[in-house]
């Protein structure tokens, strides 16, 4: 069957009931009217434009990628793909890919050969190491490379150069997922499995627009909702997203009040005795404190602060409290706020209180966003050490040093690795002089862009950018290194529910572009990095060698990969870690029978103070939790730091649309996706618009104390008092293509603030005080999709459709 997957992002329903197998539906899209008969070969991979990890095969003809097809055998998607997966691969073939290294000469970036570029990079690193030592060097990576690349990067930075300044854009993304798991379970690792959707009777989504951001996972939910005995859905989001529209109860709190709301839910569970006292008694610590802390948070108190009716809070609590199999998910509406970890931890608390862990249907998904964010964390390329080792446990450092054959003192562990917002402070102060950026576009994605631009373009900072396009950040670099990407290199990556996929090289990269792994290994060798016996530090030269090295590093740790191999990952479904000799098929659920990885000598983290973020000392942790139970952590609600006032009466939130990925370097180059959401817009409620006499499509200027953005207004189902801007729109594809000036400023992060959650250090992208002003009257509707959270409240807007070149194939219940 042919279907326009721009107009119908979730495709055709395949209903199923509780405990049944999710039916298969194989989705595919081939360009230029090609059919499966035209394809030379199919190459195994998984999706790369979100964290869901859907298995897919890449279609190759004449050594070019020509399409994709979902893998029916994969446990994650049973053949399905989302719109970004179906159309987004076209960016690989874009004529403006970087094909040669670039170096700055007399202010201009000019092409050069690899030797020139790498010698410039290594030369500057060497100079700084001699003059200032390792702390002059920093690495800022991503959630979009492969496991093998992160592990190699972490080894180079921590074990070779010996700098503590290593972080990923995962700080903006999933730092709070990791932090929340570390607070409750003393270790990273998702307790849940996607199959929990098949079994649950209640799904609660907290600040998570799953319908737009994990479209295939949402398809699974929609199929349950369309089947017999569907689950009830609780949605917590200030916007009327597709999730909110499908919900049994939708709570639309004021932005930044999540902890207040969560405390009221916990209060209700305890007050009504909707808790499993045996489980709590046997498997947790901290109940008395939690009970005491939440006592005052009645639904009435929360109703006042969150501006949600008290009865609706009660109803949500009753649904959660009477669930027999509760699945919870959380994402950026919780993570990108001032009390991010405190809010996310309350979700874990609910599961511990209700004893709903480690059983079918009883999952927590503290979601990841990027496709390989889990690996950034596991492999130690962000603020974590490899394989969830504890930076404040000397025996873990000694163990890592042994794996790497380096001196333990070589690996910095006086504090956790420096988070990106702190790295930027050091750039500001001048102690960091060299920043090596891989696969992220901070000139659009970090908060308060005017500041970021001024920091990254400083003369005294040597900026290396490794990308596949000349992004806004690459335009500021001293050296640009052209990378190969997904489909052009081999490696593995792990999705939200711990499923590891192999992604094989399908075609050659364009021009002289090289894989990130090859570039990093070249960097290490040229820099002369050695182990303690004088042998090269990096001992592998290809992805499989790196994977084998990683397996040894993961041995005996929670994310144990020793039972996996490239061969085992070929042909069938992805496999969930831990995967070992004892569990050769992987592990569907962790924390079965109330057993955790929280023992003091084994755990990844001793936790942090919920208010200040200060690390808990080893002795304190041992006293609190000697036998490694789950920790119930209480937190007091604190209002957001920047609240509306007379000059800035709105609360501004930012986020995503279904059709674009981040700074759009890939999705804007796929015509079907680009057309669905070609320009920035701003969402406003009907009552706010009416108060100001605004109509759909008026051009507004949105200002905060930090900057301004111009966008047409979409009158949507967002709650009154709140504005929403998608953050996807930078400026590489504008008329001037360089830093914004004049009237077409459109990057949401011009407006956001330099501030973060004290525990996870994740920046706050979801609350800023803002003002609006009309610049011009409407000449037509805002360029916002109608199929999503930006759906218009009036019927005057033509529906979003894809057109002829968006027709994809669907084979329900069978092979393609
Ligand atoms: N289409 C698409 N999919 C993606 C991505 C993409 O760019 N595009 N990126 C991927 C990545 S890296 C990530 S991290 C995920 C992010 O996935 P999500 O977190 O689902 O996406 P967001 O739009 O950032 O934010 C989710 C919701 O938070 C709500 N929100 C804002 N403020 C608050 C608040 O104070 N409280 C509550 N409860 N909710 C609030 C917003 O209204 C929004 O609907 O998506 C992944 N998938
Ligand atoms: N206001 C606001 N800001 C936000 C957010 C928000 O909700 N609101 N969300 C935050 C979140 S959750 C995230 S994850 C970040 C995302 O922010 P970024 O990571 O900055 O966004 P991307 O556009 O994904 O940037 C990835 C870059 O890597 C390049 N690239 C792609 N594949 C490869 C590869 O294989 N190798 C190399 N070397 N390069 C590659 C791409 O061309 C692109 O330039 O944004 C954050 N910023
Ligand atoms: Mo993210």
UniProtKB/TrEMBL annotation:
Residues 778-792 have a biased composition (Low complexity). Residues 40-96 form the 4Fe-4S Mo/W bis-MGD-type domain. Residues 806-816 have a biased composition (Basic and acidic residues). This is Molybdopterin dinucleotide binding protein. GO terms for molecular function: 4 iron, 4 sulfur cluster binding; metal ion binding; molybdopterin cofactor binding; oxidoreductase activity. PANTHER family: NADH-QUINONE OXIDOREDUCTASE SUBUNIT G, RESPIRATORY NITRATE REDUCTASE. Belongs to the prokaryotic molybdopterin-containing oxidoreductase family. NasA/NapA/NarB subfamily. It comes from the Bacteria. Keywords: 4Fe-4S, Iron, Iron-sulfur, Metal-binding, Molybdenum, Nitrate assimilation, Oxidoreductase. Its cofactor is [4Fe-4S] cluster; Mo-bis(molybdopterin guanine dinucleotide). It comes from Blastococcus saxobsidens. Residues 778-816 are annotated as: Disordered. One of its GO terms (biological process) is nitrate assimilation.
């Amino acid at each position: 069957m042919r279907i326009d997957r721009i107009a119908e992002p979730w495709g055709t329903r395949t209903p199923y009931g509780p405990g049944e197998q999710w039916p298969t539906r194989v989705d595919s899209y081939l360009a230029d009217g090609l059919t499966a008969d035209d394809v030379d070969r199919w190459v195994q991979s998984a999706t790369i434009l979100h964290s869901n990890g859907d298995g897919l095969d890449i279609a190759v003809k004449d050594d070019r990628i020509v399409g994709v097809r979902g893998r029916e055998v994969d446990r994650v998607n049973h053949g399905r793909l989302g719109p970004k997966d179906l159309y987004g691969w076209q960016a690989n073939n874009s004529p403006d890919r970087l094909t040669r290294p670039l170096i700055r000469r007399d202010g201009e970036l000019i092409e050069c050969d690899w030797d020139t570029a790498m010698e410039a990079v290594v030369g500057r690193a060497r100079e700084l190491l001699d003059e200032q030592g390792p702390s002059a060097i920093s690495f800022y990576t991503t959630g979009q490379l492969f496991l093998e690349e992160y592990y190699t990067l972490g080894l180079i930075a921590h074990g070779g150069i010996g700098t503590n300044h290593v972080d990923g854009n995962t700080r903006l993304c999933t730092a709070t997922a990791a932090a929340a798991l570390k607070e409750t379970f003393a270790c990273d690792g998702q307790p849940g499995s996607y199959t929990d959707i098949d079994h649950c009777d209640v799904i609660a989504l907290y600040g998570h627009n799953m319908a737009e951001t994990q479209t295939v996972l949402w398809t699974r939910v929609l199929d349950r909702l369309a089947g017999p005995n569907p689950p009830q859905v609780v949605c917590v989001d200030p916007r009327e997203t597709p999730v909110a529209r499908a919900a049994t109860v939708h709570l639309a709190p004021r932005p930044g009040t999540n902890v207040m709301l969560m405390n009221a839910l916990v209060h209700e569970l305890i007050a009504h005795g909707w808790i499993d006292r045996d489980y709590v008694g046997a498997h947790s610590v901290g109940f008395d404190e939690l009970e005491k802390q939440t006592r005052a948070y009645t639904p009435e108190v929360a109703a006042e602060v969150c501006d949600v009716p008290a009865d609706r809070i009660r109803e949500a609590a009753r649904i959660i409290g009477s669930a027999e199999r509760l699945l919870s998910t959380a994402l950026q509406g919780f993570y990108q706020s001032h009390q991010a970890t405190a809010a996310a931890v309350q979700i874990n608390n609910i599961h511990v209180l209700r004893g709903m862990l480690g059983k079918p249907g009883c999952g927590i998904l503290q979601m990841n966003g990027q496709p390989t964010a889990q690996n950034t964390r596991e492999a130690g390329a962000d603020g974590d050490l490899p394989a969830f080792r504890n930076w404040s446990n000397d025996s873990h450092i000694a163990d890592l040093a042994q794996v790497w054959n380096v001196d333990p003192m070589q690996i910095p562990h006086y504090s956790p690795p420096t988070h990106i917002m702190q790295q930027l402070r050091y750039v500001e102060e001048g102690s960091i002089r060299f920043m090596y950026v891989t696969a992220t576009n901070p000139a659009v994605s970090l908060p308060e862009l005017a500041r970021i631009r001024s920091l990254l373009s400083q003369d005294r900072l040597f900026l290396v950018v490794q990308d596949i396009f000349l992004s806004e950040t690459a335009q500021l670099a001293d050296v640009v290194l052209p990378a190969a990407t997904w489909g052009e290199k081999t490696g593995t990556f792990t999705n939200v529910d711990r499923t590891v996929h192999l992604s094989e090289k399908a075609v050659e990269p364009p021009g002289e572009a090289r894989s990130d792994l090859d570039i990093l290994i070249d960097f290490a060798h040229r820099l002369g990095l050695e182990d303690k016996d004088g042998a090269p530090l990096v001992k592998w030269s290809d992805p499989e060698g790196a994977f084998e090295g990683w397996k040894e590093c993961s041995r005996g740790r929670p994310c144990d990969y020793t039972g996996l191999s490239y061969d085992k990952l070929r042909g069938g479904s992805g496999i969930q870690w831990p995967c070992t000799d004892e569990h050769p098929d992987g592990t569907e659920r962790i924390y079965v029978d109330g057993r955790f990885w929280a023992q003091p000598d084994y755990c990844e983290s001793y936790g942090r103070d919920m208010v200040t973020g200060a690390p808990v000392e080893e002795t304190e942790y041992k006293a609190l939790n000697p036998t490694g139970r789950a920790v119930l952590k209480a937190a007091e609600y604190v209002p957001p730091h920047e609240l509306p006032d007379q000059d800035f009466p709105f609360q501004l939130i930012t986020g995503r649309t279904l059709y674009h990925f981040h700074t759009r370097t890939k999705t804007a180059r796929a015509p079907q996706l680009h057309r669905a959401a070609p320009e920035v817009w701003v969402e406003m409620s009907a009552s706010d618009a009416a108060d100001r006499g605004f109509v759909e499509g008026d051009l507004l200027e949105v200002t905060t104390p930090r900057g301004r953005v111009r966008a047409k207004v979409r009158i949507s189902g967002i709650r009154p008092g709140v504005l929403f801007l998608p953050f996807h729109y930078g400026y590489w594809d504008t008329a001037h293509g360089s830093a914004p000036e004049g009237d077409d400023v459109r990057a949401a992060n011009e407006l956001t603030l330099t501030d973060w959650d004290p525990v996870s250090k994740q920046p706050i992208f979801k609350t800023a005080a803002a003002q609006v002003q009309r610049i011009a009257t409407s000449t037509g509707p805002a360029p916002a999709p109608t199929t999503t959270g930006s759906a218009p409240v009036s019927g005057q807007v033509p529906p979003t459709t894809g057109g002829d070149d968006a027709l994809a194939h669907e084979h329900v219940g069978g092979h393609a």
